[in-house]
Write a structure and sequence with these properties.
elongated; 17% strand; single chain; alpha+beta; 44% helix; Endonuclease, Chain A; 7-stranded mixed sheet; 2 domains; 11 helices
């Protein structure tokens, strides 16, 4: 498994039910991501807002005893005196945002598919060695949508659209981040309300991908943010234009996403995002050029 990825069946065997929720242990996840458990925990602790209690929790002594009895953990001694952490399916998705490597993304996709496969098997009434029970329908719907997003990314398909409701801050952030990562040559952002958080988000683009910002904002703070950004990152240009009301994200001068909210406000209110049809996108790109 050093260079290759793990088969889905191998992962399913390492999904356990704790607190009526399917989870994976940090030690197993660290093995799949090819990092040390301590490194994984450090990244999680540095990003506490991305790992709420329903994404990750630390095991209790009695839960460790249960896993030892099931041979999930060889012994308490193998843990080195520390109580392990358990990650839900959403927690695994969040890990790919803090372990910023191609392997982390690929492994997260495989693991999430394993969660989904296990859940589908449970819903079909198949035996699962008593590891997992039915999940609430609303939760299944949300997680299924997340799996579709990761599947589209893995198959290099365009993410067509998405609707995010008030409070879905991380989901919207992750969705936009994946779109940004899909650009190969250039990104053009049209947004009249940009701050340093948007510039940080744009750093998720691949190396060598240029960035162009079109905005009407000329505030002192924005000009300062841009000057500091340019001092470190050269592949950025800014144009000031008063003709745009909506927000657009253009990838490689080919794909155009229409975004119903400024990137700095993702998830604060309900908004939609959609990929324009090619003919419409071509006309729009000619207009801005």
């Amino acid at each position: 498994m050093k260079n290759g990825l793990i088969p889905e069946n191998n992962i399913i065997d390492l999904i356990y039910e704790l607190r009526e929720t399917p989870v994976m242990l940090d030690r197993d996840l660290a093995t799949f991501y090819q990092v040390k458990s301590t490194r994984l925990r450090e990244q999680v602790k540095r990003n506490p807002k991305r790992f709420p209690d329903d994404f990750m929790f630390q095991l209790r002594e009695e839960e460790v005893d249960l896993l030892v009895s099931q041979n999930a953990i060889p012994s308490k001694r193998a843990l080195g005196g520390a109580l392990p952490y358990a990650f839900t399916e959403q927690g695994v998705a969040a890990i790919s945002s803090v372990l910023t490597s191609e392997r982390a993304i690929d492994v997260s996709i495989i693991i999430i598919r394993s969660f989904v496969a296990l859940r589908k098997s449970a819903l079909n009434g198949r035996s699962l060695n008593s590891r997992i029970s039915h999940l609430e329908k609303a939760q299944i719907k949300t997680e299924s949508q997340l799996d579709k997003i990761f599947t589209a990314l893995n198959n290099n398909k365009d993410i067509q659209q998405g609707v995010f409701y008030k409070g879905q801050i991380f989901d919207a952030y992750s969705f936009i981040s994946n779109i940004i990562r899909s650009a190969n040559k250039s990104i053009t952002l049209i947004d009249n309300y940009i701050d340093d958080s948007v510039l940080t988000l744009m750093n998720k683009r691949n190396k060598g991908v240029s960035l162009k910002i079109i905005t009407r904002s000329k505030t002192k703070q924005f000009r300062l943010d841009i000057s500091k950004y340019k001092a470190q990152y050269s592949t950025i240009s800014v144009e000031y234009d008063l003709d745009f009301h909506d927000r657009f994200l253009i990838l490689d001068q080919e794909k155009v996403y229409h975004i119903g909210a400024s990137l700095k406000d993702l998830g604060n209110k309900c908004f939609a995002l959609s990929l324009l049809e090619k003919q419409t996108a071509d006309i729009f790109i000619k207009y801005i050029n």
